[in-house]
Design a protein that fits this description.
4-stranded antiparallel beta sheet, binds pyridoxal-5'-phosphate, 2 domains
Length: 473
């Protein structure tokens, strides 16, 4: 029999440490977006799995040769696309420890420290962001899951738990509302909850891409006249397209009239509430039922880590809690068993990285980094604004700049084509990575400035690169 000779921790970890420090040292020089072609990597992987174990050195070599060329470098300071999934050294350190322990933290008893640390750091986050003390926090994997959990809870609250008990009767006629700019996870959630896509009413937006609450009011009134029941309004505090901010205050006013559930999706922009000057957008939060933001986007905590807050813990628990015999513990009534606060049973120890990050930077350190990003974004915004060949396409609310290249005498259709070509050329160069959306039918370039190690020279390089390629078109 062949003995599988895999290496020891003593041999492997120094190699990994060398790799990680080399990776960070060289990160700026790597093409930000992977230049890999479709199926290129698949074709380099053997058709069948190895029947015998392989030496770590061989696995690691193939990781470097085959896998790394297919990686887009999300931690590069020249990554300006989508929303970031930024990370940091304390977060990485915590993830190493989390993986080493491999603890499955579904219940308090399966790792008391995980449950108690989660409760503590989520309370810290409430205080740090200005979320009212009456809310209760739990970490979910993503904002999509949090939004789904919120809509399931709203559905159960408004049906007095009858759908959980006996399914839809056919008489519910629920409606969910969000703006045309809200994230696609809302649409996914109405599909999954059985509410149905046709019962998601997308409300037109104002000029600044925030929800038009006059039209929201009208839509609800019309639905009530037609026998529908307004179940939930999803307020976007920071849309994906342009970080537009819905007026939570106006939505809360409508809640007084109609009694719907409010879910606040602040997946990206939530981190800005670390700053007192951004808290004005939280006016009305006391009327919200649930709130989500992702430390895994802009708060230096590597993916995944979504902070979800609920006002009424009992409704949440009544919606999700199931305790089969094999999961019963003596402590059940005295502790938080977070597997009952959402969809999956199994849970990673995510609170550890949040704890490391918050302690490493401190609240002031986090605020400084966020303010720095906002200042860099303002600079970039001003460069675009003062260039006659470019046009800003949305107001700057934080650190996402929306714009397009606008050479003279081109039709809207031509401008859309030109900007799409410009995006492709910029990203194919590997120098920076930006992404796009469409705002009011216009092809829009998006530059998000929120990377952990980004500085002015990277932002300057981004602008120079965009200018360079625009001159080539
Ligand atoms: C506003 C908003 N909501 C929700 C999401 C979904 O986030 P997640 O990937 O955590 O599900 C995003 C992702 O970018 C987003 O921008």
């Amino acid at each position: 029999m062949k003995i599988i000779m895999n290496d020891s921790v003593e041999n492997i970890f120094p190699e990994l440490q060398k790799w990680v420090s080399g990776y960070f040292a060289n990160l700026e020089n790597l093409p930000v977006k992977s230049q890999s072609k479709i199926r290129e990597i698949y074709g380099r992987l053997p058709e069948n799995p190895p029947s015998e174990g392989e030496a770590f050195g061989d696995i690691f070599r193939d990781f470097n040769d085959i896998i790394m060329p297919g990686i887009t470098h999300w931690q590069s300071p020249k990554f300006f696309a989508y929303f970031p999934a930024n990370s940091s050294l304390p977060s990485l350190a915590a993830e190493v420890l989390t993986s080493a322990m491999g603890a499955q933290c579904m219940k308090w008893e399966t790792s008391p420290a995980a449950a108690e640390l989660e409760e503590r750091v989520m309370n810290w986050l409430k205080e740090m962001l200005g979320i009212p003390a009456e809310f209760h926090g739990v970490i979910q994997d993503t904002a999509s899951t949090s939004t789904l959990a919120s809509l399931i809870t709203a559905r159960e609250y408004h049906s007095e738990f009858s759908i959980n008990r006996s399914g839809y009767s056919g008489n519910e006629k629920f409606r969910v509302y969000c703006s045309t700019e809200a994230h696609s996870s809302v649409e996914k959630a109405v599909k999954i909850t059985g509410i149905g896509r046709e019962n998601l009413v997308k409300i037109p937006v104002n000029e600044d891409y925030s929800i038009n609450t006059v039209l929201l009011d009208k839509a609800i009134q019309q639905d009530l006249n037609n026998g529908y029941r307004p179940l939930c309004v999803v307020a976007a505090l920071g849309t994906t397209g342009s970080t537009a901010i819905d007026s939570l205050e106006e939505i809360a006013e409508l809640k007084k009239k109609y009694g719907f559930w409010i879910h606040v999706d602040a997946a990206f922009l939530g981190t800005a509430f670390l700053l007192p000057e951004y808290r004005k957008y939280l006016k009305g939060i006391e009327h919200a039922d649930t709130f989500v933001f992702n430390p895994h986007k802009w708060m230096f905590t590597n993916f995944d880590c979504s902070a979800y807050f609920v006002k009424d813990k009992n409704t949440l628990l009544n919606t999700f809690e199931i305790i089969p015999e094999y999961l019963k513990t003596r402590s059940d009534n005295a502790v938080n068993n977070y597997c009952d606060w959402g969809i999956p049973l199994g849970r990673r120890f995510r609170a550890l990285k949040l704890w490391f990050v918050i302690r490493w930077y401190g609240v002031r350190g986090l605020q400084e980094k966020v303010r720095y990003h906002l200042a860099l974004a303002k600079k970039f915004h001003d460069w675009v604004s003062s260039d006659r060949e470019f046009e800003l396409l949305a107001p700057l609310t934080a650190n996402l700049v929306c714009f397009r290249y606008k050479p003279k005498d081109k039709s809207e259709d031509e401008l859309n084509i030109i900007n799409e070509q410009l995006l492709q050329r910029i990203n194919a160069s590997g120098k920076i990575y930006i992404s796009h959306t469409k705002l009011g039918g216009r092809f829009t370039l998006r530059v998000v400035i929120a990377q952990t190690e980004v500085n002015e020279s990277h932002v300057r390089e981004a602008w120079d690169t965009i200018k360079y390629f625009s001159n080539q078109i």
